């Protein structure tokens, strides 16, 4: 609900409810708990595997990610530093955090952390453009926020079979543009925003 900006407003029901399916209507969302309702819905989680950038395959069962839990928070990052993005899942009502380690064979990647000087220290808002042959991979530094969770501000570039990045362009929020050529892959890299005098 975005309009009007008033905690006391109510909105009329928009259509018929299927109460057998657990649907309900409360005109003011601030009254949900007071009226004894909640938004928990125990649906099996889903995980989709990208196939060559063309389609997706539901790999939920095979990955063990199809837990029957009211999951809300998902953090995607490389928890065990093996170059693969893992998932940490938190659910409503407490219980264990579940860490799903990525076991899919990995292609070449670059993990990059940035440190702003004139820009904000976490470099949020920076755009990274990697030129690999005749293609570009573009990433923006924006740590994804889920419900009660936030991914770290790390840039992860999947590079397929490439051995290096011909040119890496970093456009910092301050307006500074930094170009690094012939970036070799391997260990994670850390770049600091150059000073204006450079």
Total number of strands: 14
Structural class: mainly beta
Helix content: under 10%
As a percent range, the share of strand residues is: 35-45%
Distance from N terminus to C terminus (CA atoms, Å) equals: 48 Å
Q: In words, what does this structure look like?
A:
The chain is mainly beta and 198 residues long. Among the domains are: 48-100, no CATH class; 108-192, Sandwich (Immunoglobulin-like). The protein has 1 helix and 14 strands. Strands 8-7-12-13 form a 4-stranded antiparallel sheet, with no helix packed on it. Strands 3-4-5 form a 3-stranded antiparallel sheet, with no helix packed on it. It has a 3-stranded mixed sheet with strand order 11-6-14, with no helix packed on it. The longest helix has 4 residues, at 60-63. The mean pLDDT is 83.
Keywords:
four-stranded antiparallel beta sheet; 2% helix; globular; 198 residues; Immunoglobulin-like; mainly beta; 14 strands; three-stranded antiparallel beta sheet
């Amino acid at each position: 609900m975005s309009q009007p900006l008033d905690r006391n407003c109510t909105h009329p029901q928009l259509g018929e409810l299927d109460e057998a399916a657990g649907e309900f209507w409360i005109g003011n969302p601030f009254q949900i708990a007071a009226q004894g309702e909640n938004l928990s819905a125990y649906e099996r989680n889903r995980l989709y595997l990208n196939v060559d950038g063309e389609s997706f395959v539901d790999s939920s069962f095979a990955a063990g990610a199809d837990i029957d839990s009211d999951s809300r928070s998902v953090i995607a990052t490389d928890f065990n530093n093996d170059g693969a993005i893992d998932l940490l899942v938190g659910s409503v009502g407490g219980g264990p955090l579940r860490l799903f380690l990525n076991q899919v064979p990995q292609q070449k990647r670059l993990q990059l952390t940035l440190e702003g000087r004139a820009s904000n220290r976490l470099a949020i808002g920076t755009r990274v453009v990697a030129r690999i042959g005749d293609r570009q991979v573009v990433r923006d530094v924006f740590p994804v926020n889920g419900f009660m969770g936030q991914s770290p501000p790390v840039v992860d570039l999947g590079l397929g079979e490439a051995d290096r990045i011909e040119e890496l362009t970093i456009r910092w929020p301050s307006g500074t543009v930094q170009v690094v050529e012939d970036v070799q892959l391997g260990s994670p890299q850390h770049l600091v925003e150059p000073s204006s005098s450079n």
